[in-house]
Structure formats: structure tokens, C-alpha cells
Amino acid sequence: MLDPDRRSEPRTRADLSARLRCKAGECAITLLDASTGGIQAMSLEPPARGEVVELLVGEHALPGRIRWQSGQRFGLSFRDRISVEALLDGGHGPVTLAQIASAQRHREGWNGAWPFSRKGTGKKTQIAAVFAGVGIAVWAVSALAGSSRASETKPQTAMVDPAAPATAQR
Questions:
Q1: pLDDT tens per residue, range 49-94
Q2: CA-CA to 30 of 20 to 30 Å: which in 6, 39, 63, 66?
Q3: Taking the chain, what is the end-to-end CA distance rounded to the nearest angstrom?
Q4: Is the CB of residue 46 less than 8 Å from the CB of residue 69?
Q5: Where are the annotated segments for Disordered (predicted)?
């Protein structure tokens, strides 16, 4: 077991009942502490080091691997980083940080597309420039087409020389 002073990130104390799905089946466990990368837990029959398991808390199933085991205690590292708060809450909604970020992007929807938001400003500027360029091109083509049509539809009037004989005026 790692010395608490040598841990890579802070732990949050927990006293939470959960289930662990492993080779031997499902067993009851007690979470002792949690971090974004894993948990320390206790079980009457802890799984062996290296075993791939699934932590079941509320409606959440979090895959991971047993990193150490000593007596009834063991350490589990998650496959994906989690929100400790969401895990200990045990309620509905996302737990992994990737799921939380995805849900946040989904909630933002079009709000993230407004020009005053910081995210995606470069892409929005490019899109606006393309639309402006297309608009200018359409306007220029229609202006040129309009001026050539105007010269085609003007009535042609012959210059009449008043001194010329009448037969030549036809």
C-alpha cells in the first residue's frame, strides 16, 4: 500500500457501501477513500492483485483493475478518471470526467456557438468569412449579369440622315 504522503493526488474519505463484480462473482465492499483515479476499499474476500473488476455504485458501473491487496483492504484504479463528488453522491448522471465534459457540451448546445463565447471563435470567424465571400461573389455576378442584359435589351435606333432620299431611310 502506498504511503499517504507519496500518493499522486488527494483522497476523499468515504464510508460508502458498494458492490464489486469480479471473477468470483459479486461481493459487498466498503469504500474507504476515493480519488479521480481510483479507490481504497475493504471486503471480506478481496480480489487478487491485477484482476480486472467493475465497481458498482448506485446505477454506475466503473471498470478498473486491482493494483494492490493487503488483508481485507485493496486498491482499485479506474480505467477512466472520475468525479469523486459524483461517485460518492451515487445518484443519476455521469461519473467519469469524459462523460461529464460530454454532457456539459451537450447542454451548451447552440449557446457555445454564439460569437461572444470564447470556445470556437476561430471556427466561427472562418465560417463568417466564407459566407461573406459567397455573398460578395453572388452580388458581383448578378451585377455583371445585370449590366450585360441591359445592353442587350436597349432598342437599336438607326441614325437617320434627313438629307438622304426616302428609299434609303428604310
A1: 999 999 999 888 999 999 999 999 999 999 999 888 888 887 676 7
A2: 6
A3: 114
A4: yes
A5: 150-170
- 29 - beta bridge partners? 18
Query: Which residue, among 40, 50, 44, 51, has the nearest Cα to 74 in the 3D structure?
Result: 40
From residue 9, alpha-carbon distances to 34, 67, 93 in Å are 10, 16, 24
Q: Which residue has the cell 479507490?
A: 39
In contact, 74 and 43? CB cutoff 8 Å: yes
**For residue 136, what is its C-alpha cell?**
460578395
What's the pLDDT tens digit per position in 11-57?
899 889 999 999 999 999 999 999 999 999 999 999 999 999 999 99
pTM of the model: 0.56
HSE (CB half, 13 Å, CA atoms) of 95?
A: 25
46-75: burial string, b at 16+ Cβ within 10 Å, e else: bbeeebebbbebeebebebbbbebeeeebb
